[in-house]
Amino acid sequence: MWLPSRFSFKFSVSALRRGVPPSYPHVVRRGGCNTAAFMPEAAGFEGVSGRAALQEFSVSNSEDFWAAVARQRLSWIRPFHTVQDCDLSRGRIKWFQGGMLNVSVNCLDRQVHICPERVALIWERDERGSEVRYTYRQLLEMTCRVGNLLKRHGVRKGDCVTIYMPTCPLAVASMLACARIGAAHNVVFAGFSADALAERIRDAQSSIVITMNQGVRGGKVTELKKTVDTAVQSCPTVRHVFVAMRTETLVPMTDRDVLMDEMLKEDVVCEPAAMNSEDVLFLLYTSGSTGKPKGLVHTQAGYLLYAALTQRYVFSYHDGDVFGCVADIGWITGHSYIVYGPLANGATTVLFESTPVYPDPGRYWETVERLKINQFYGAPTAIRLLLKYGDQWVNKYDRSSLKTLGSVGEPINTEAWEWYHRVVGEGRCPVVDTWWQTETGGICIAPKPSEPDEEIVPGMAMRPFFGIKPVLMDTEGKVLTANNTSGALCIAQPWPGMARTIHNNHERFIETYCQPYPGYFFTGDGAYRSPKGYYQITGRLDDVINVSGHRIGTAEIEDVVNQCPAVAESAVIGYSHDIKGQGIYAFVVLKKNMKIKEEDLYKQLNSVVSEKIAKYACPDFILLVKRLPKTRSGKIMRRVLRKVVESDLDSLGDLSTLDDPAAVQEIIEGHAKISMKKKKGF
After folding, report:
1. Which residues form the Acetyl-coenzyme A synthetase N-terminal domain (predicted)?
2. Looking at 68-136, which runs of residues are DSSP E strands?
């Protein structure tokens, strides 16, 4: 692994128009001193006083709001002339047209210009107590070296580089290096299988893959280079694989492979490319209900602005704070709240390589004490897991540095929320339960920002962020205006951070997000709006399961399960899981005359799912059935399967429309046997 160097930095950025630096002055002009101190741009918004009024202004005067914020918080090479050109009904989303900038300059150069020795990254390695710090100067040097290395091996503006790495400084530098030279990046979670990686490489048409010899997490070693070697066998576009060394273990190298040590020969200056606001910044693949992952496209200016604004205001981040998001960079949370948002704000951001329970269940809180983390952002899955280990692992460590606690990836249940607030935060830290998606680019609904004395309701995302106008829709596509109601969650107007399209398939983007409720962005989630107007997310409305914050389409799992030689067909659903939020329940029909022991089948299915997708996608329960409940047209009734698993038999509804109603009784009896075994601890 490349560690910080002591090379001097040569600052060279041409035609850089500086905006306001990340440390915003508390100027007071029109608009109320409190509001202007909170957000300096608000001083120019006539008659706006208070944060609720600021949110209302950001929605009703969207162009004025985003124009002011973009001009002040981003450094432009050329100013934009059009704030937005959007039509959700047609899937047209364009922000800050005419503007040119470079994202890496906004994240690195302007921080180096102000405070080069400020710590940018704290790499909390798997080995506890061995953290490594990188200043903004060192991170810029590393980024420039990687950028020059990529250019020397043929990467050009508009290319897409696939990054298959764990959370580490070189992965961050690789992302920023792509942004610097005008290439897009496609970060793939380092737990994905070779098949899943290959599918994403092919769709992105990458010629370069960046990886490591091995990954280290929770005391276990994963063979990343070996996985990449298998994946690229079916990826004819790949010319080079860049390999960094996380461990001292040597791995087989071919003529195609390039050691990342070569970057040390490169210059520490790499001229940044001037990028249009709507040029592609990155692709990020997320699961869909059709089974084929979607390569969502995020662009330069709008995404960066939204990530930076949400990181600062949702978490009450202030200059000098240490921001600790413990997600993986392979997911959108890592992109927005480990890399782009914090760095654009000049923050010190933590890269957490380990697990919540390695080497013991106190790992998070020992890290908080040692690194003096101020904002902690984690997943409800981890909080529920740690809750079961008891308070002693938390109370063992000093958490007085904490100011804000956040949760991400799925709704947090009330018990976990209250433990998080009472024990971890000692009853003094607000808990921000954030709702957003890969598609939204950043947080859309959260308890903060709000007035300091405003209430926070456990388990609720609550308030829309600036520029976000959520609405609830009924089954007929009409807007539900009353409170104390539930419906499909949509967003009524565009915002800068949202995804622009699906790579190579804009029609699918329109069909998925724009057509269900024309003129609105359909999130795929259901929500409840309380009598006070607060929002609570109730879960997915499509066939997508959320396992420990990882979204996976049921069709994707079924497709892999059906590849098992013994399987005729299958149906997969999500069910409520105490730790993971949702678990995976598979109903499997064997081929006729197929004889196989159940334990052998379970091993085969878990092996093939782990190989083709990832370990987290393996079913928790597998029930062998003779037939699946289907309509007469052949559609599998997953709604019925969910009701059986939820033991909600009174809500099964009219089964007379099924092709074979008797199939449901068989499934009820089979599930009862599994439930009995579970209670007995089998």
Report:
1. 53-107
2. 82-84, 95-97, 100-101, 119-124, 132-135
The CA dihedral of 90, 96, 101, 106, to the nearest 10 degrees, is -100
DSSP letters, 474-523, are: -TTS-EE-SSSEEEEEEESS--TTS--EETT-HHHHIIIIISSSTTSEEE
Mean pLDDT of the 280-305 span: 88
Residue 286 structure tokens: 């997320």
CB-based contact 346:319 (threshold 8 Å)? yes
Contact between residue 530 and residue 404 where contact means Cβ atoms under 8 Å apart: no
Distance between CA atoms of residues 3 and 1, nearest Å: 6
In angstroms, the CA 503 to CA 158 distance is 13
C-alpha to C-alpha distances, 331 to 401, 457, 471, nearest whole angstrom: 27, 27, 26
Structure tokens at 661: 């109603």
Residue 633: what pLDDT?
Answer: 53
Question: By the 8 A CB rule, do 168 and 213 touch?
Answer: no
Helices 51-60 & 62-73 angle (0-180, nearest 10): 110
Task: Indicate whether 591 pLDDT > 90.
Answer: no
pTM: predicted TM-score of the whole model, two decimal places: 0.84
Report which residue type is found at 336.
S
- How far apart, in whole angstroms, are the C-alpha atoms of residue 74 and residue 71? 6
SS3 call for 115: coil
Phi-psi region of 344 (alpha: psi -120 to 50; beta: other; left: phi over 0): alpha
